[in-house]
Write a structure and sequence with these properties.
The protein is 45% helix and 21% strand. The protein has 13 helices and 11 strands. The chain has helices spanning 45-48, 53-73, 84-88, 92-103, 112-124, 164-170, 179-198, 213-222, 230-233, 240-251, 255-258, 272-286, 298-309; strands at residues 4-11, 15-23, 29-38, 77-82, 107-109, 134-139, 144-149, 156-160, 207-211, 237-239, 290-294. Helix 8 packs across helix 12 (272-286).
Length: 310
C-alpha cells in the first residue's frame, strides 16, 4: 500500500494550524508541510457571542493562501475543523458560509467531545513506547479538554469553557494581572477542573500529558530555545516547579515586557500568562508534579480521523 497524502486545517480560537502529511499504512504520519498563525478568531466572543468581521477576514485570507499550498501538494483528501470560538458564536453559519464561498473549504464545527477525541488520536500517535494509559490536558483559546485514555477502553472526555483568550478577557484586565485577578482565576479553574474530574472514572497508573500552544511554549521557555524545535519540545518533561517559576516570571512582567523572552512564540505575549495560570492550577488540583509535553494533538488527530473515516 502507498502512503496517503492528507491535509488538515485546525481553526482555533487563538491559532490556525495547517498540516500536510503522508499517512503510512502503519498509521504513522510523516510531516510534509506545516504552518501556524496566531489570528485571534475568538477575539471578544466570550462577551459578544459573535465573531468579529475583521477576525473572520484574517482567517479567510489565511485559508485562501493555504488552499494554494494544499493544491500544490496534490493531496488525496483534506479537511478543516473549527473549535470553541466558532461553536460559541451566534454568527457561526455566516463564517462557515464565507469560508466555503471564498476558499472552497467545508468547515466541520467540532463539539468539545469531538475535539478531545481527535486530540487523543494525535497524542497517542506520538507517545513514547510503554505509555498506554494517559490523562491529557489540551489548553485552547476558548476551552480546555481533559481526555482520559485507557488501553482497550473508550476514551472519557470532558470539555470546560476555560481557555487562554476567554480567561484573559473575562478576568485578567490589568497588565500585569493583579493579585486579586490571579486568585479569581485560580478559583474558577480549580472549580471547573474539580467538576470535570468528578465526571470521570478513578485514575491510577496513568501518565499526565499536555498538548497545544501554551504547554509547548512553556516547554520551549523552560529550555530557553531561541527558535521552536519540535524535536526538543515533543516528549519533554515539564515539572510543576519549573511551571511555577515561569508563571511567576510572566506575571511579574507586562505584555510588552514579555516580548523576546527566550522560547516564547511571537504574538503569544498577552495570553501566555493565562495559560501558565491554567496549567499550574490544573496540576495543583490534580496533585500532578510533572507534565509530559506532546507536540502532537488536534492537528494530527484530524488527519488520522480523516483517513479512517473515508
Amino acid at each position: 500500500m502507498k502512503d496517503e497524502r492528507l491535509a488538515g486545517i485546525d481553526i482555533g480560537t487563538l491559532t490556525c494550524r495547517l498540516l500536510i502529511a503522508d499517512l503510512a499504512p502503519t498509521g504513522q504520519l510523516k510531516e510534509i508541510c506545516s504552518e501556524r498563525r496566531i489570528l485571534r478568531l475568538g477575539e471578544g466572543v466570550d462577551q459578544s457571542k459573535r465573531l468579529k468581521r475583521e477576525a473572520m477576514d484574517r482567517v479567510v485570507q489565511c485559508l485562501r493562501e493555504w488552499r494554494e499550498v494544499i493544491d500544490r501538494y496534490q493531496v488525496h483528501a483534506r479537511t478543516a475543523v473549527a473549535t470553541s470560538a466558532v461553536r460559541d458564536a451566534e454568527n457561526r453559519q455566516e463564517f462557515v458560509d464565507r469560508v466555503k464561498t471564498e476558499t472552497g473549504f467545508d468547515v466541520e464545527i467540532l463539539s468539545g467531545e469531538q475535539e478531545a477525541q481527535r486530540t487523543m488520536l494525535g497524542i497517542r500517535s506520538g507517545l513514547p513506547k510503554g505509555i498506554a494509559d494517559f490523562l491529557a490536558l489540551d489548553i485552547g483559546g476558548g476551552s480546555t479538554e481533559f481526555i482520559l485514555a485507557q488501553e482497550g477502553q473508550a476514551a472519557v472526555v470532558h470539555s470546560i469553557d476555560v481557555g487562554v483568550v476567554r480567561l484573559s478577557e473575562r478576568l485578567l484586565h490589568h497588565d500585569p494581572p493583579t493579585r486579586e485577578e490571579i486568585e479569581q482565576a485560580r478559583v474558577w479553574i480549580h472549580g471547573e477542573t474539580t467538576e470535570a474530574l468528578a465526571a470521570m472514572p478513578r485514575r491510577t497508573g496513568y501518565t499526565f500529558v499536555g498538548t497545544a500552544g501554551t504547554i509547548t511554549s512553556l516547554a520551549a521557555m523552560a529550555q530557553q530555545l531561541p527558535s521552536y524545535e519540535s524535536a526538543r519540545i515533543h516528549n519533554y518533561r515539564l515539572t510543576l516547579e519549573t511551571i511555577a517559576e515561569l508563571e511567576e516570571q510572566l506575571l511579574a512582567r507586562t505584555k510588552a515586557g514579555r516580548v523576546g523572552m527566550p522560547g516564547l512564540e511571537k504574538n503569544r505575549e498577552d495570553v501566555i500568562a493565562a495559560g501558565a495560570i491554567i496549567l499550574r492550577t490544573v496540576m495543583d488540583t490534580l496533585g500532578e508534579q510533572e507534565c509530559l509535553v506532546s507536540d502532537l494533538g488536534l492537528r494530527e488527530g484530524v488527519l488520522i480521523h480523516l483517513a479512517t473515516s473515508q
